[in-house]
Amino acid sequence: MERTTGMERRLRTSVPGRLRRSVNRRRRRDTPRVAVIGAGAGGLAMGAKLREAGIDSFTIYERSDGVGGTWHDNTYPGAQCDVPSHFYSFSFALNPDWSMTYADQPEIRAYLDACTDRLGLRPHLRSGSAVRELRWDDDAMVWRLHLDDGTPDGDDVSADVVVSALGMLNVPAYPDIAGLDEFAGPVFHSARWDHDVDLAGRRVAVIGTGASAIQFVPEIAPVVDRLHVFQRSAPWIMPKMLRPYTDGERRRFRHVPLAARRERWKHFWQFERNTSVHTADEATAQRTRWATKFLAHAVPDEELRARLTPDYPIGCKRLLLSNDYFPALSLPQVELVTDGIDRVTPTGVVTSDGHERDVDVIILGTGFRASDHLSGIDVYGRGGRSLHEDWSDGASAYLGIAVGGFPNFFILYGPNTNQGGNSIIFVLEAQVHHVIGAIRRITRRRRPLEVRRIVQERDARRVQRDMAGTLWLSGCSNYFTDRNGRVTTQYPHSALHYWARVRLLRPGAYRLLRRDGRTVARPSGGTAGRVRG
Q1: Where does 411-452 have alpha helices with state H?
Q2: S-S: 400 plus which of 270, 341, 417, 530, CB 3.0-4.6 Å?
Q3: Per-residue pLDDT tens for 354-400?
């Protein structure tokens, strides 16, 4: 529903129709055109709040043929969320009908698809349109977007504001293994699962033992002839409190909205109390004891248990949840291989000891390029400056959202915004609230807005300073760290700490851009001031 001010309502009842239409035209003209990149949870939350704010001139550009983001792309057997269902949903679109305490991929994708219609976002969605380049036009003070939409030359569109909602888990990481391209059989990444390949009775190699692999390995292990799981380092795994919701529980969630909201906040506070990011915390020691006991109980074979025992502190890599991964590795047709891979031949995988295992199919469970933020999109800001060149020493953004030199450009789930085990939906909603505040200021002042570089740099220094002593820097190889050794994905404090910092726009952190390329800002003292851009 279009929002109106009290003055506009009075005008509609007291002035001629021609003047009312003039007021409406001016209102539409003053509303910025917003381009949202990605139709995952972040893009849908952004679209919902834009509509709520009365900003209907926006388009969500999605490269795939549907919504859901990572839940659209990852269709591998056993794909499931590791955050409780009621907490992995929008606070403004609760779902009382979750079937399980941890929803699987089809149910989450169906929820996000239903939200698209429920929130009125379908008319704003442009599927099959991948954004390949963003370029700020200094003269027109707008963004030019180049789209790959399947046509020979693509399409070019303009927007006043751009919001990237691509997230971190959208570009698969492919391992650099000699001979992989020469393998004669099917090779595919778990995030691009080839459902046309029948694994029944086949000899299969799985490379990688991350979050995806521990979900699909138990699903395919019973049907294959032989399964070789190649492990570079053992993951820490905890049991998953997985159970179906009863009919009575779902009925209560449906008819007593407060019950669903209480379920949501129960999980939030459990995460806040139990999530630790520092090596010396008692919570870390407690989790280590729990995980060690779980491994001892699930894997009776002493030799196998030794190879499944991590040699790094719990939390250094992503902590995984599974009840059936350890039992799957104990099946007679499954082999855990801990020797390094030397090369791949057309018919098999050769390890560092010279042993070749003949296989028919290779599945890559090697995760994502999480630290390569906005990979696949060239972004050019004021004066043609390149975002990826700015990030050559490591990605950085004010609160993970805004970058100096790139006006009217905002990032959801950007650098240093990932939470250790908490729901990214909670984080996304706080970021969306921040961006809506920025867009309102852009609309009110009728000028582009960008974060001050000094504010961004100060924020980056604080984040990296607070990384000292965190588990992510305790000596393991993980996807949190970029090629320069900096942690550019994680936030070194709790989700509530981040929420408190990001939810409200701090005007002094941003400045307004003038047409001559300079910027005009309002200092904290309240008087107008000017600084060079």
Answers
A1: 424-445
A2: 417
A3: 999 999 999 999 999 888 899 889 999 999 999 999 999 999 999 99
The pLDDT-based confidence of 280 (bands split at 50, 70, 90) is low
> What is the overall mean pLDDT for the chain?
90
Q: What is the 3-state secondary structure (H, E, C) of 325-382?
A: HHHHHCCCCEEEECCCEEEECCCEEEECCCCEEECCEEEECCCECCCCCCCCCEEECH
Give which of 136, 138, 135, 137 is closest to 517, Cα–Cα.
138
SS3 of 449-496: the string is: EEECHHHHHHHHHHHHHHCCCEHHHCCCCCCCECCCCCECCECCCCHH
pLDDT more than 70, % of the chain: 90
Q: What structural domains and CATH numbers belong to the chain?
A: 33-171+370-531 (3.50.50.60), 180-235+276-364 (3.50.50.60)
Please report which confidence band the pLDDT of residue 14 belongs to, taking 50, 70 and 90 as the band edges: very low
CB 342 within 8 A of CB 352: yes
Q: How far apart are CA 281 and CA 273, in angstroms?
A: 12
Task: Kindly state the average pLDDT of the residues 144-159.
Answer: 92
Q: What is the mean pLDDT of residues 91-100?
A: 96
Residue reference for tokens 């924020």: 459
Q: What is the mean pLDDT of residues 33-50?
A: 98
Burial label for 293, CB within 10 Å (0-12, 13-18, 19+), is exposed
Q: What is the DSSP string of 244-301?
A: BPPHHHHHHHHH-HHHHHHHHHHHHHHHHHH---BTT-HHHHHHHHHHHHHHHHH---
- 388 vs 407: CA distance, rounded Å: 16
Q: Terminal CA-to-CA distance of the chain, rounded, Å?
A: 38
